[in-house]
Amino acid sequence: MLDRDGPVPIYVQIADAIEEQIVGGWLRAGEALPSEAALEAKFGIARSTARNVVRELRARRLVHTVQGEGTFVGPIGVPRIRRTKALYLDIARDIAAKIRRGTFRPNCSISSEETLMLRHGVAKVTVKKAVAHLREQGWVFTIPYRGTYVSEPGKWPTHEGA
């Protein structure tokens, strides 16, 4: 529980909580730290505060950042644990499942990029790749400057892949 009115800055409180996860073994060496977007969503903080959390963890030498890949537990040189599947495919599968269940109905819009970014804790480029994949599969169509909408069921893929 964050003390938003106390003397300890929020970013320090969050860094302390993440340090406990690292020391306790919940986050292992080489594992990716949650993205800034995920930290924003989880703790209800601004992007600048999320950046300060990561900066604080780097100052404590608990994590290191690899440009274009993310921030990882441990010092530079620790082998990174890589995801076995692309994250955008997981997001696409999640949205496709919601379309199949009727959460997103034909000709209705899916969640905005910003909402998907916060829900999944990813960057905009990852959401764009997920939506592009859904478009290629026939799940959705996009109208420029208006949004992305669920296709009619006859255009959905017949196989089980997202």
Helix and strand topology:
Blueprint: H1 10-23, H2 36-43, H3 47-59, E1 63-66, E2 70-73, H4 87-101, H5 113-120, H6 124-137, E3 140-143, E4 147-150
Antiparallel strand pairs: 1-2, 3-4
Helix pairs in contact: 1-3, 2-3, 2-5, 4-6, 5-6
Supply the key terms.
single chain, 162 residues, mainly alpha, two-stranded antiparallel sheet, two-stranded antiparallel ribbon, 6 helices, 4 strands, 10% strand
Short description:
The protein has 162 residues and is mainly alpha-helical. The protein contains 6 helices and 4 strands; from the N terminus they run H-H-H-E-E-H-H-H-E-E.
Spatial gap, N to C terminus: 37 Å
| Secondary-structure element order, N to C | HHHEEHHHEE
Please report the total strand number as a whole number: 4
Radius of gyration (Å): 19 Å
Structural class: mainly alpha
The mean pLDDT is 89
Overview of the molecule:
The protein has 162 residues and is mainly alpha-helical. The protein has helices spanning 10-23, 36-43, 47-59, 87-101, 113-120, 124-137; strands at 63-66, 70-73, 140-143, 147-150. The strands form 2 sheets. Strands 1-2 form a two-stranded antiparallel sheet. The longest helix is centred in the middle third of the chain and has 15 residues, at 87-101.
